[in-house]
Design brief:
Layout (H helix, E strand, L loop, with lengths): L2 E5 L6 E12 L2 E14 H7 L8 H17 L1
């Protein structure tokens, strides 16, 4: 079964997300990785993206936009 992960792999305050595809074929594990065109801040990805019920409407809108883009890529 294949899986797709999105990673923030940068020390900079803003960077492009990385997409990582993991899958197995004939009992051999493969990993494909590449950068997306989705520019996000480190603070948003680490602290705000996973919030269940944010109170700030800007965060809600940002979550919606980012999740829509991630679902399209996935």
């Amino acid at each position: 079964m294949a899986s797709v992960n999105f990673l923030y792999r940068s020390k900079k305050p803003e960077a492009l997300l990385q997409l990582r595809l993991l899958y197995r074929h004939n009992n051999v594990d493969y990993v494909l990785a590449g950068k997306t065109q989705l520019l996000l801040s480190k603070n948003y990805w680490n602290n705000l993206h996973k919030l269940k019920k944010p109170k700030d409407i800007d965060v809600v809108n940002m979550q919606h936009d980012v999740n829509t883009e991630l679902n399209t890529l996935e």
